[in-house]
Amino acid sequence: MARTVREELRRSVVVEDNNHSELPTIYVITPTYPRPEQIPELTRLAQTLMNVPNIYWLVTDDTDTPNQDLIDYLTFTGIPHTYLNTPMPPKYSGHKVKPKGVANRNAGMEWLRQHASKGVIYFADDDNTYDIRLFQEMRYTEKVSMWPVGLVSNKEGLSTPVVSEGKFQGWFEGWNGGRTFLVDMAGFAVPNATMPYKPGHEEDGFLQSLHISPYDIEFKAEQCTKMYVWHTQTKKSSHQPNNIFKKKYDNTNIRVLKELLYYDFNPKNPPNL
Amino acid sequence: MARTVREELRRSVVVEDNNHSELPTIYVITPTYPRPEQIPELTRLAQTLMNVPNIYWLVTDDTDTPNQDLIDYLTFTGIPHTYLNTPMPPKYSGHKVKPKGVANRNAGMEWLRQHASKGVIYFADDDNTYDIRLFQEMRYTEKVSMWPVGLVSNKEGLSTPVVSEGKFQGWFEGWNGGRTFLVDMAGFAVPNATMPYKPGHEEDGFLQSLHISPYDIEFKAEQCTKMYVWHTQTKKSSHQPNNIFKKKYDNTNIRVLKELLYYDFNPKNPPNL
């Protein structure tokens, strides 16, 4: 009965095994922002990453205020990580279309420029679903590797290079927008070499800045025929809890749980996303 | 480069370590049904369970037709499991309010009666989020253990026993309905003894049939002050893919991916849920 979490769960073993120094490190950059779903979604992603060796996780949070619950949770996971506060610049606060996740991703890349010269970069949003085999697929990327992304919220419901007999045939993507690389943020990885990328660009700009062409793509996931990542979207929690504030719950566990559910989150004044 | 998934990923190690024969087994019963989100959601849950020792997973699928992709995936995970086809009885097909997951859970319990006499039972839907510490909390349940469930879609946004100074004070739950146990399906575990439960009952009926009272509850998760499980709901995929059927994609990877995304799933004729 006196067993501790550490004794029974596999975390400590994972951390030990995570140190496969012969494997290239995968730097996973996860933009996130405060909301009631934040901790559950990052919990799911963390428990995915716990099954993958040699991961370094950059969690970049769109807030000025460090989220202590999240910081404590990241420490608990045992996954090598850095937590960064990366608020969206105030100049966008009046914009109708806001650059979601851009400040977060740029901050992650800036950190990488300063702290790492090898390995692979992957942008992993917190609400997607990742099969652990995806990380195996991307680990030895030389220029750019790509694979299909399922359940994308465009009309195709799928984003992937079209491949026939091992050759690039074009893109399967709902929206063109004059882009060279019609690829979803979850659909590629690149090596973390020193590279002339332009911060602030999205998928296409980022990949173009690497001076690669679609013919340089390394098709992963069995020539883009396997699905190892999906845009699963989580419904926003729409409840308007009132009873939780009632005085009769003073001196009960409800007071503590309220903080866990709604820490720093004011639905009337959501963060810059 | 020739490394296999098995060599690099932690799965084989997990399976080995999963055999902690001194620990009580946790039987996780997961009702599920065919839809585009089925494989991603079960992938996330599987990767959670891979971090927990001595789990036995009963995946009970509301369909007549075995889902071979799912069966193959379950084998890949290395988690000890049984896959059951448990379609909703046809008599409910005309009902407006259908008994969601009831046939699945009963089939899981029937399997347990036949194959196991010890351990703990937990009902884990495929779209919830589980912190691995939850399984540690429930493993030594003697009569019934309970903990808070967050993001529940009732107006409280939370479901938990109210606890003060270690004592049961009542329930925090949006709906009463004359129940003795106002508890969410994800909020309790019971031992798998031979017990006089009535199949077909939901949470309250099930717990009442165990002849326990609220005062028998073992409060877990630090006296119900920690949140280790959330009702995260996944948005239904609303895309209406048409381009994916175009003839120009014959002999490309798009044909293969179509099957992965829409296997046996006809949005015009969804299954009985």
Automatic annotation (TrEMBL), chains A, B:
<keyword id="KW-0472">Membrane</keyword>
<keyword id="KW-0325">Glycoprotein</keyword>
<dbReference type="InterPro" id="IPR029044">
    <property type="entry name" value="Nucleotide-diphossugar_trans"/>
</dbReference>
<comment type="similarity">
    <text>Belongs to the glycosyltransferase 43 family.</text>
</comment>
<protein>
    <recommendedName>
        <fullName>Galactosylgalactosylxylosylprotein 3-beta-glucuronosyltransferase</fullName>
        <ecNumber>2.4.1.135</ecNumber>
    </recommendedName>
</protein>
<keyword id="KW-0479">Metal-binding</keyword>
<keyword id="KW-0333">Golgi apparatus</keyword>
<dbReference type="Pfam" id="PF03360">
    <property type="entry name" value="Glyco_transf_43"/>
</dbReference>
<feature type="site" description="Interaction with galactose moiety of substrate glycoprotein">
    <location>
        <position position="243"/>
    </location>
</feature>
<keyword id="KW-1133">Transmembrane helix</keyword>
<keyword id="KW-0464">Manganese</keyword>
<dbReference type="GO" id="GO:0015018">
    <property type="term" value="F:galactosylgalactosylxylosylprotein 3-beta-glucuronosyltransferase activity"/>
</dbReference>
<dbReference type="GO" id="GO:0046872">
    <property type="term" value="F:metal ion binding"/>
</dbReference>
<comment type="pathway">
    <text>Protein modification; protein glycosylation.</text>
</comment>
<dbReference type="GO" id="GO:0000139">
    <property type="term" value="C:Golgi membrane"/>
</dbReference>
<dbReference type="GO" id="GO:0050650">
    <property type="term" value="P:chondroitin sulfate proteoglycan biosynthetic process"/>
</dbReference>
<keyword id="KW-0735">Signal-anchor</keyword>
<feature type="active site" description="Proton donor/acceptor">
    <location>
        <position position="203"/>
    </location>
</feature>
<keyword id="KW-0808">Transferase</keyword>
<feature type="binding site">
    <location>
        <position position="127"/>
    </location>
    <ligand>
        <name>Mn(2+)</name>
    </ligand>
</feature>
<keyword id="KW-0812">Transmembrane</keyword>
<dbReference type="GO" id="GO:0005975">
    <property type="term" value="P:carbohydrate metabolic process"/>
</dbReference>
<dbReference type="InterPro" id="IPR005027">
    <property type="entry name" value="Glyco_trans_43"/>
</dbReference>
